[in-house]
Amino acid sequence: MERRLQLHRILLEILGSENVYFQPPESTRMKYPCIVYQRNAADTKFADDKPYLKMKRYTVTVIDKDPDSKIPDKIAALPLCTFNRHYTVDNLNHDIYNLYY
């Protein structure tokens, strides 16, 4: 199975609903709380001038009306995940993480 689809399933399990969106178009009407993620970089490790490890990095955004939501804590507990920033827009809290997967 493709790694991104594995990640999608993990995010669905963490959220506990179907409100997980991969690179949604602006016309998508999202339901909250939700998780939005997109690929934003990759990291390659080399040995003997050849790539031996390639990992894609995703920006994972938790959007929730609840400022004390437990969902960001669950995302932060994933391996190779780091917190990036938090902001609020239209009374929706956005917690953004970088996740290598």
What's this model, at a glance?
The chain has helices at 3-15, 71-76; strands spanning 20-22, 34-47, 50-64, 81-89, 92-100.
Characteristics of this structure?
5-stranded mixed sheet, 50% strand, 101 residues, 5 strands, 19% helix, elongated, alpha+beta, single chain, STM4215-like, 2 helices
Folded structure, characterized:
With 101 residues, this protein is of the alpha+beta class. The chain has one domain: STM4215-like (2-Layer Sandwich), CATH 3.30.2000.30. Helices cover 19% and strands 50% of the residues. It is built from 2 helices and 5 strands, in the order H-E-E-E-H-E-E. A 5-stranded mixed sheet has the order 1-2-3-5-4. The protein is elongated. The two termini are 13 Å apart.
Strand proportion:
over 45%
Mean pLDDT: 95
What's the domain count? 1
Total beta strand runs: 5
